[in-house]
């Protein structure tokens, strides 16, 4: 509205809005691929969704009756399709264009007598929709913290509260603000908005830079919450993410005594392997690539991941090193085969990697045989050059450990986050058998993390109330201390 008043020429405003929309959409697609969390929360990657509605207004399209009805039906169809697939797609990225396009088609149709949009309830929800959107998130956070997000009655109550708060916010904030923006002079209004933004942004920035407000939470809660960021501090420098050039790093001293190869699980335990070395002058040469198993010839469903190239590059890199340097292989192997199905109720997903075209749509016996053989062949290829150690899969929790532990402590609940050994072996039995086959085939050795992480039939995500994981499956810098003794088994 303010832009319209500052630049009253419709064509100029339309082109400007359209240009910014395209740039924001492109940025959203790119950032969603590399940093999905940032893409989801930041304005530059979400602005195009709001600008799309403004562009519909500026274009002023007026379809005929039949065309309007068809556009409305198509629009609601796209929205429904998107809602049905929301949990299976990276968001926002280009996937968000489907419901946005659907919404734009409904707006363009502008059918005043539509059975979909004309009822008073739908009109009210439409008026309040933006305010409801703003209020629903704190309600969702509250339900999550209270551990009620999975309860239908609590969710229904949350929806009702969001609608009520949205209606009140529209009545007392949004509508008056719109009236004020429409009446005020453009430049004084712009200065007022800029000042208001600074009043909010500066304190928020200071809180962000200061990592929150010290003392606002009990110490034990802060310690648990802080574990969510207690990961490898050289991760950005040394761990290869999707779309990046391949990286290698030495941890510790210049005297390289052991090689570490794997995915993000390898990156999460490299400092434990470093700590297990006899001298501060000794070091670990690390190669890790996100979501990429150490399987020669592996392909991935993600177009921006070059697993096959990475594994070939690593093999070439270490081939030039002395043959007495052992290599330790750490992967989230079960995840590539069975997906995230350790989480109760999680949707069944096809294998994320494959070897031969076409990519499998299910975990078939044929795929399992192929995966097992490829794991054995890859381990034995490495073993022709040097000693090889395969690390058993780490226990995977069913929730984000650090955040869940912090919430439980805040609510005064017991902080027991664990899985049974029975569940562990049900999840990872196939990988154990494949690793054992590699041991039998070419003498690779096996490292077992369970003695450090499990006892009394339980694999615990916490130790003395402190989280061992920074999410649901990656060990934190505190948690990987439990594996130092295991790492000392590596003959360097």
Briefly say what this structure is.
The protein is of the alpha/beta class and 492 residues long.
Structure, explained:
This protein is α/β, with parallel strands linked by helices. It has 3 domains: 1-118, no CATH class; 184-214; 227-487, Rossmann fold (3-Layer(aba) Sandwich). It contains 19 helices and 13 strands. The strands form 4 sheets. The protein has a 6-stranded mixed sheet with strand order 1-3-2-5-7-9, with helices on both faces. A 3-stranded antiparallel sheet has the order 8-11-10. The chain has a two-stranded antiparallel sheet with strand order 4-6. The longest helix has 32 residues, at 152-183. The chain is elongated.
CATH level-3 fold name of the largest domain: Rossmann fold
CATH C-level category of the largest domain: Alpha Beta
Could you tell me the mean pLDDT? 88
Shape: elongated
For the largest beta-sheet, the strand count, sense and barrel status come to: 6 strands, mixed
Strand content: 5-15%
The CATH superfamily of the largest domain bears the name SGNH hydrolase
Strand order of the largest sheet: 1-3-2-5-7-9
């Amino acid at each position: 509205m303010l832009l319209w008043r500052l630049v009253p020429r419709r064509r100029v405003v339309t082109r400007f809005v359209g240009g910014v929309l395209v740039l924001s959409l492109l940025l959203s697609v790119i950032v969603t691929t590399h940093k999905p969390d940032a893409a989801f929360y930041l304005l530059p990657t979400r602005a195009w969704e709001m600008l799309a509605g403004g562009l519909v207004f500026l274009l002023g399209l007026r379809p005929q009756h039949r065309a309007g009805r068809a556009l409305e039906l198509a629009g609601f169809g796209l929205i429904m399709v998107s809602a049905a697939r929301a949990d299976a797609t990276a968001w926002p990225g280009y996937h968000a264009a489907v419901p946005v396009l659907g919404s734009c088609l409904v707006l363009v149709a502008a059918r005043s007598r539509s059975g979909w949009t004309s009822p008073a309830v739908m009109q009210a929800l439409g008026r309040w929709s933006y305010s409801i959107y703003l209020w629903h998130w704190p309600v969702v956070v509250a339900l999550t913290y209270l551990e009620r997000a999975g309860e239908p009655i609590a969710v229904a109550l949350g929806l009702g509260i969001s609608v009520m708060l949205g209606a009140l916010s529209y009545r007392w904030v949004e509508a008056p603000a719109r009236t004020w923006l429409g009446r005020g002079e453009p430049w004084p209004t712009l200065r007022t908005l800029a000042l208001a933004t600074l009043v909010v942004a500066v304190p928020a920035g200071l809180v962000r830079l200061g990592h929150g407000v010290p003392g606002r939470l009990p110490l034990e809660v802060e310690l648990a919450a802080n574990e969510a960021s207690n990961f490898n501090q050289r991760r950005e420098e040394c761990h290869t993410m999707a779309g990046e050039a391949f990286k290698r790093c030495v941890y510790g001293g210049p005297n390289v005594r052991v090689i570490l190869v794997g995915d993000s699980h390898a990156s999460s335990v490299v400092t434990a392997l470093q700590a297990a070395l006899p001298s501060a002058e000794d070091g670990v040469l690390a190669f890790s690539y996100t979501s990429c198993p150490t399987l020669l010839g592996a392909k991935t469903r993600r177009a921006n991941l070059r697993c096959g190239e990475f594994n070939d590059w690593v093999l070439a890199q270490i081939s030039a090193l002395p043959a007495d340097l052992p290599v330790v292989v750490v992967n989230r192997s079960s995840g590539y085969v069975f997906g995230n199905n350790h989480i109760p109720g999680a949707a069944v997903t096809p294998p994320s990697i494959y070897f031969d075209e076409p990519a499998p749509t299910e975990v078939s016996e044929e795929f399992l045989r192929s995966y097992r053989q490829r794991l054995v062949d890859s381990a034995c290829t490495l073993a022709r050059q040097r000693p090889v150690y395969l690390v058993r899969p780490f226990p995977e929790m069913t929730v984000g450990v650090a955040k869940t532990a912090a919430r439980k402590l805040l609510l005064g609940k017991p902080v027991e986050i664990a899985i049974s050994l029975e569940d562990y072996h049900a999840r990872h039995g196939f990988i154990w058998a494949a690793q054992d086959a590699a041991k039998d085939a070419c003498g690779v050795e096996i490292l077992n993390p369970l003695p450090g992480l499990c006892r009394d039939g339980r694999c615990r995500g916490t130790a003395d109330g402190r989280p061992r994981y920074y999410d649901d499956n990656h060990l934190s810098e505190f948690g990987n201390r439990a594996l130092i003794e295991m790492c000392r088994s590596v003959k360097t």
